[in-house]
Amino acid sequence: MIAFTSSLVFLLFNFVTITCYIVEPGPLVVATKGEVWPKPQEQTTEDKFYIVRPQIFKFKVLSESCDILTNALDRYINIIVNQILPKTRVKLQEDVLKPWKTNKNFVGYLDALDIILLEPCKHGELPDASMTEQYVLNITSDTVNVLSAQSVWGILRGLETFSQLLYPTADEALHINCTSIFDYPRYQHRGVLVDTSRHYIPVSKLLKTLDALSYNKLNVFHWHITDDQSFPYISKTYPELSQQGAYLPTYVYTQQDVAQIINYAAARGIRVIAEFDTPGHTRSWGQAFPELLSPCYRNNVSTGQYGPMDPTKNFTYEFMENLLTEIVDVFPDNFLHLGADEVEFECWQSNPEITAFMQTHNISSYVELESYYIQKIIDMSDKLKATSIVWEEVFTNGVQLPNRTIVHVWKGGWELTMNAVTNSGFQTLLSSCWYLDHLSGGGDWTKYYDCEPTKFKGSDEQKKLVIGGEACMWAEVVNEYNIESRMWPRASAAAEKLWSVKDADTSSQAGHRLEEHTCRMNKRGIGAQPPNGSGFCEL
Ligand SMILES: *[C@@H]1O[C@H](CO)[C@@H](O)[C@H](O)[C@H]1NC(C)=O
Ligand SMILES: *[C@@H]1O[C@H](CO)[C@@H](O)[C@H](O)[C@H]1NC(C)=O
Ligand SMILES: *[C@@H]1O[C@H](CO)[C@@H](O)[C@H](O)[C@H]1NC(C)=O
Ligand SMILES: *[C@@H]1O[C@H](CO)[C@@H](O)[C@H](O)[C@H]1NC(C)=O
Ligand SMILES: *[C@@H]1O[C@H](CO)[C@@H](O)[C@H](O)[C@H]1NC(C)=O
Ligand SMILES: *[C@@H]1O[C@H](CO)[C@@H](O)[C@H](O)[C@H]1NC(C)=O
Ligand SMILES: *[C@@H]1O[C@H](CO)[C@@H](O)[C@H](O)[C@H]1NC(C)=O
């Protein structure tokens, strides 16, 4: 009996170790070669291929050009040149230097790509909510090789695709299969939120983030620029805000920094949408302007602590009007994010002056008081001709919202919220399933990939009110040293869900493309982490 038990234990133990320890050599997920992320809407690919020699290759613009286009062509020539393999490695295999010459699928050398822009672009043009990003890219063995688009933004997306189709074959040469692509985004608004208040993120890292956005065809940089912890934006109207509210005098964004970020983004077809979150999340504003905030009380005695903005004071509204007037001028995008999430009522409740104000104004609840504030701020934004975005609480608390307001859904149970928001006729953005600060083990990009923004109860009309979504990089435990690896390639999963057709791919298939895409980002200097597991990049 004892012998029997021990042999059973031995067998079980062996079984467990065998299933755990059998591992094949090589990468867990094998990378594709020359496949595109996010997946194009329509693509046919052949086995026939061209060889591109980066030293010779040129873009030929057959239409009017502008600085956005010429700068983009320079950037992509650089990217293409950097894609060739390091000489040292290939020198070892001189005999296989031009293996394509005898391949039956070899069509020839692709020395130029024609660029046709149908609508001329203008110097200094900015992308906006109505930008067109559609393009056609034909690499064929019988006709001309051409990238064509209505707008310069479409050309930018097409250039990104073209650069992704190339893959190294041998020293100084790249391979591109014949392919025909017709591509456009599923959603107009495809963003990433970056929080620069919980940790200050230097401008150089924000510019790199914008590079990464363009490699993923994302088109909105949502700049959550201030919060409770710090106020790094140097306001022209109220410079005291950052003088006293920034972590350090150097941890700030000057007007030149902001302009640089907006221009750098625009050159890549990316909109910059600023968020100045109020009336909660404003503790840092009170360093310079304590009178903006509500003093908290205990037993009718002030505790010296502060809560959300004081919605009962005229000063608050005069201040906000002046600041927002500056903001819509500094940030030219039509959209303005007004925040308004997580307003805590305890401090308002404790404050006798606020209680008295509510009585004289016949305001019977704190939600109503919040509405009173938000209504005034949205009216200001409306008067300044901005389209307001607010976090979902504003809607769920029942604030009366102007028709054009966009409701940004971020909490759990988003399916019910999206249904309610769209049922009331409002446009909506989804972020709930794309919180990049929520970490899980292994390659946790699949949880983002498996989120389908229309998977909620509602009519087709309701689904049309979903204008897109944003992956959110909250920065409590993120600074300049880990922002790249935490965002990428995890935000790439959201990028594909927002660009590609519904059910474009399964996460297990997409994994192979993401493996290649991650190496591609690494090669371009983005410190993306491995998406899935063991493997390597040819760098
Ligand atoms: C490209 O063509 C080669 C053969 O030349 C083929 O093996 C490969 O699968 C093709 N790639 C794609 C993405 O179709
Ligand atoms: C690209 O190829 C498709 C399919 O072969 C064709 O219908 C289309 O006219 C081509 N477009 C351009 C701009 O060459
Ligand atoms: C605070 O003062 C108000 C008005 O004077 C009074 O009604 C209330 O009971 C006081 N609350 C406490 C906790 O002392
Ligand atoms: C605040 O503004 C309102 C309306 O504009 C005005 O009636 C009121 O007198 C002002 N209060 C103060 C203290 O200035
Ligand atoms: C106060 O508001 C309630 C409903 O919110 C309303 O029934 C009542 O008439 C209002 N009173 C005054 C004096 O406006
Ligand atoms: C917004 O206003 C337009 C025109 O006045 C109207 O057709 C539409 O139903 C309104 N939408 C909402 C959500 O109220
Ligand atoms: C790696 O990717 C494959 C599919 O590409 C997936 O099935 C597997 O669960 C992933 N592994 C981890 C650790 O995420």
UniProtKB/TrEMBL annotation:
<dbReference type="InterPro" id="IPR029018">
    <property type="entry name" value="Hex-like_dom2"/>
</dbReference>
<feature type="disulfide bond">
    <location>
        <begin position="519"/>
        <end position="537"/>
    </location>
</feature>
<keyword id="KW-0378">Hydrolase</keyword>
<keyword id="KW-0326">Glycosidase</keyword>
<feature type="disulfide bond">
    <location>
        <begin position="296"/>
        <end position="347"/>
    </location>
</feature>
<dbReference type="InterPro" id="IPR017853">
    <property type="entry name" value="GH"/>
</dbReference>
<feature type="active site" description="Proton donor">
    <location>
        <position position="342"/>
    </location>
</feature>
<dbReference type="InterPro" id="IPR029019">
    <property type="entry name" value="HEX_eukaryotic_N"/>
</dbReference>
<keyword id="KW-0732">Signal</keyword>
<dbReference type="Pfam" id="PF14845">
    <property type="entry name" value="Glycohydro_20b2"/>
</dbReference>
<protein>
    <recommendedName>
        <fullName>Beta-hexosaminidase</fullName>
        <ecNumber>3.2.1.52</ecNumber>
    </recommendedName>
</protein>
<dbReference type="GO" id="GO:0005764">
    <property type="term" value="C:lysosome"/>
</dbReference>
<dbReference type="InterPro" id="IPR015883">
    <property type="entry name" value="Glyco_hydro_20_cat"/>
</dbReference>
<feature type="domain" description="Beta-hexosaminidase eukaryotic type N-terminal">
    <location>
        <begin position="36"/>
        <end position="165"/>
    </location>
</feature>
<dbReference type="GO" id="GO:0030203">
    <property type="term" value="P:glycosaminoglycan metabolic process"/>
</dbReference>
<dbReference type="GO" id="GO:0004563">
    <property type="term" value="F:beta-N-acetylhexosaminidase activity"/>
</dbReference>
<feature type="disulfide bond">
    <location>
        <begin position="66"/>
        <end position="121"/>
    </location>
</feature>
<keyword id="KW-1015">Disulfide bond</keyword>
<feature type="signal peptide">
    <location>
        <begin position="1"/>
        <end position="20"/>
    </location>
</feature>
<dbReference type="Pfam" id="PF00728">
    <property type="entry name" value="Glyco_hydro_20"/>
</dbReference>
<feature type="domain" description="Glycoside hydrolase family 20 catalytic">
    <location>
        <begin position="187"/>
        <end position="500"/>
    </location>
</feature>
<dbReference type="GO" id="GO:0016020">
    <property type="term" value="C:membrane"/>
</dbReference>
<keyword id="KW-0325">Glycoprotein</keyword>
<dbReference type="GO" id="GO:0006689">
    <property type="term" value="P:ganglioside catabolic process"/>
</dbReference>
<comment type="similarity">
    <text>Belongs to the glycosyl hydrolase 20 family.</text>
</comment>
<dbReference type="GO" id="GO:0005975">
    <property type="term" value="P:carbohydrate metabolic process"/>
</dbReference>
<dbReference type="InterPro" id="IPR025705">
    <property type="entry name" value="Beta_hexosaminidase_sua/sub"/>
</dbReference>
